[in-house]
Amino acid sequence: MSKELIRLRDLCMAYDDELVLDHLNLYINDKEFLTLLGPSGCGKTTTLRIIGGFTTPGSGDVFFDGVRINDVPPYKRQINTVFQKYALFPHLNVFENVAFGLRMQRRPDPADPKRKARLPEEEIRERVLEMLEAVSLKGFENRRTDALSGGQQQRVAIARALVNRPKVLLLDEPLGALDLKLRKDMQIELKRIQQQVGITFIYVTHDQEEALTMSDTIVVMDKGSIQQIGTPEDIYNEPKNAFVADFIGESNIIDGVMLRDKLVQMYGRQFPCLDGGFAENEPVDVVIRPEDIDIVPVEQGQLTGVVTNVTFKGMQYDIIVDFRGFKWLIQTTDHSPVGARIGIKIDPDGIHVMKKSRYSGLYGDYSSFSDEYDELDAAEEGGDEA
Prior knowledge:
By secondary structure, the protein is an alpha+beta fold. The chain is built from nine helices and 22 strands.
């Protein structure tokens, strides 16, 4: 069983009378890769800064290994941070960048306990080389940091943070400055490093792909509150409300009525599903992922609609279909031309039913996406004519 390492209890924080954290409660386990995920302004970076000691909460408590640490300064916490800007020292090579924190450390001198002595050079070298190997930079000791790629610079920053042997590493959107391919590569690399060094990583991002790829646990936040906590699979397959369903991947979110357990009604049609625990005839939100919809002949469809836009995405087509004025997104390898009338079929395990929430009615209609696609198509046609 995992051991609890950090607990945030009833945290509140406001800037200029604007509430940034609203009675936030969260615990984080030892050796866990936990991601704080949400849009800009949701409070995720403020939460990270409070854990690191860079920000003091307006109210509430932070516990580390059972001890309250609200008043403990950052340098006395067993926590290090990697920011989006790596802040490497350009006048020092890779080895000295990583060794910098170790050279600042002092410990009691065995010959005279009243004196503080520097770490032995042999120990510094051993620990730096160990960290460089852990981040796949063995042999780069003498390289200038400005001669490194963005991904290599990031790994130097991680090695510099880990060489002090913290119990927790905080990462504040560290992949934001990297190009797409390198960012994907570094997602895998970060997870490998976390598993190898065996400490807790707390990661902040607004990128749901990063969160799904790396995390043991995802905490979805909005407006200073936690909307859902779970594994990547739970968050994607069982979203708690329309905000989570929309923020994690693409979703069609439709008004429905739960007639009884395992039977929901949409557009006046009945659909078998796997959900239960709702009242009879309870209004609900129904989530259907675009990849869970099968296109079938009209006469075989549970619903029929008209294709309003088709966009080729390489591995699939993004097809927008109008169902009685509400536009769905379907992701499929089957091409259906604009104007075609199609049927759709959805298996019971492709339908997820949620309680109504304050987010109901705000997400899930792809009308605006259809307009954007039309504008792109028009621009491309104009470009061809020019």
